[in-house]
Amino acid sequence: MAKAPETETPRKKGNAAQIAVYGLLALLVLGLGGFGIQDFGGRIAHIGSVGDRDIRTDDYARALKRQIDQVSEQFGQPANMAMLTAFGLDQQVLQGLINRVAIDNEAARIGLSVGDEAVAQEVQSMGSFQGLDGKFDNAAYREVLARDGRTVVQFEDGLREDLARSLLQGAITGGFAAPEPMTETLYQWVGERRGFSLLQLTEADLTTPLPAPTEAELRAFHEANIAQFTKPEAKRITYVALLPEMISADIAVDEAALREEYDKRIAEFVQPERRLVERLVFPDDAAAAAAKARIDAGGSFEDEVTTRGVRLEDIDLGDVGRDELGAAGDAVFALTEPSVVGPFASDFGPALFRMNGVLGAQEISFDEAREQLAGEAQLDAARRDIAGRIEAVDDALAGGATLAELQTGQGMQLGTFDYVTGAQNDEPIAGYEDFRTVADAVTEDSYPEVIRLADGGIAALQLDAVVPPAPIPFEDARTDVEAAWRADALQKALSARAIEVKSAIEGGAAIGTFGIVNVTPEIAREGFIEGTPPSVVAAAFALDEGGLRVIEEAGFVGILQLDRIIPAATEGEDATAIRAALAAQIEQAIAQDAFTAYTNALSSVPGTVQIDQQAVAAVQANFN
User: How far apart are the C-alpha atoms of 526 and 524, rounded to whole Å?
Assistant: First the structure.
């Protein structure tokens, strides 16, 4: 690499930073090695070209791998090529690569490049190639590239292309200005506020009570809404588990060890009186004294916190002892109710101290703490016991032992239940995330393996069968059917009542004559009213002043009346800041559109883009 450091730092075997880098790289190599990236380098070097530039196979494979990883993370389950194709993401990946290579080709055509010094500076700034001292490590740099199957020249050529591409993109996207009329129109839309009144109707607002359902109505409702009363598909799982609490009670405890543990944790069981305190630091004594004077004159501590540009959580010391407060200790502990004292010297400068609460002294004797200490000791011993059994359970499973045999041979608990992915399962073992992860992925071809649980327990499971969705008989679902019928009937009755009330208001009646009205004097488009659906605010911004609308959502029926429309403020710091932010977003959007149009133009010239579909298919086949 041009202008890279000439002296190579000897690589130490125990260099933690290098080990971390190599570990991350190993994961990358394993991830890419699975789809034969080394073979691509020998057999299929590229999948196509744009002008004079090849679209490298390795680049396409890595882009696909990144996209698959993103989809896997988004959906919480392993993704494959079929999923990418179903969502059209395979074409997005390919087009993105075509656009990138088109820019590279154009940069080369016009002679745009960067010098060796710029490449060297970029390499030396990369954290992946830095040692523990934060400086560039030449040995690690070369070793990382070697493990990735790339030479220094290949890596730096690619980096040079990236930098040149960034320069060209900057030239294309720079210099755009947001049209003032567009900015102002968006500002008026964003800055507008609405004030409205909302009457939420409840069962108490009905003119006649809901009738009790007949047997025939319930059965008809059950049949008409059978999907609501159907058990979802489930996995019938048999499992064995050994949890610490299953064996902890039978473990003997050492009284001497318990007393030693009590003495070691004496500060936990014997605590002197403490205070809940906040400390507000000032730059000098005069500023602190002036703030204290304002508080004494009726000002608030919160106002002083805001003036200092900090938050209450930033100055919260929690519960502290007298000695922890230094010079302020005596004054703070002399208070018997919340108050502010100071200024006193602190490690960070003169400060005011607000005492918010008194925590009385606490003294728990050994006899009082013994049950807690014994329980903790027994659970800890149980975890060690279980850890010692893992190898034996592993060997038994590898040797073909059944879960029932593990119950007998290892004293594990055996159970069977229907597991529903993503749903609330009543079986306690399903409360463990590690168990659910395995249960979600298990198939009939899976072999039971030891599952290590977060609390030190272990489990193993097998899939007995997939239980298809099945309707719940009316007799078994009767309680749920009656509740659902009533909720449905109430929603319909409230909707009908809302139409009546709306008509009355339109006829001249005041909205307040029909119940308690919640008035929102002013709210922004992105605002939210607690206890109401988002459609309430959306409706307020869709109405003309004085307009009415019935709001109907699941479990909510109300009438909204728009009281006033408040235009966006024309002046002020907030108005200036919002306009500036909108202008920046508009400029960014215009620049992105210009860049997209530019890259599309480069790649749309007839004969410019050549794609080898067989090579593309060969790469994709490795991700199926």
Answer: 5
**What angle, 0 to 180 degrees and rounded to 10, lies between the N-to-C axes of helices 89-109 and 152-173?**
90
pLDDT per position as a tens digit, 33-72: 434 444 444 467 889 998 888 898 988 998 999 999 898 8
The average confidence (pLDDT) of the chain is 87
**pLDDT tens-place string over residues 293-348:** 999 998 999 999 988 888 888 899 998 988 889 999 999 999 989 999 999 999 88
Which domains does the chain possess? 16-174+606-621 (1.10.4030.10), 193-225+476-566 (no CATH), 234-252+384-468 (3.10.50), 273-360 (3.10.50.40)
* Residue range 15-30, pLDDT digits in tens: 333 333 334 333 333 3
CA triple 320-326-330, angle to 5 deg: 80
CA distance 59 to 79: 19
Three-class SS of residue 359? strand
- Decide if 563 contacts 544 (C-beta within 8 A): no
Rg (CA), the chain: 35
CB 281 within 8 A of CB 350: yes
| pTM metric for this prediction | 0.53
Contact, 315 vs 276, CB < 8 A? no
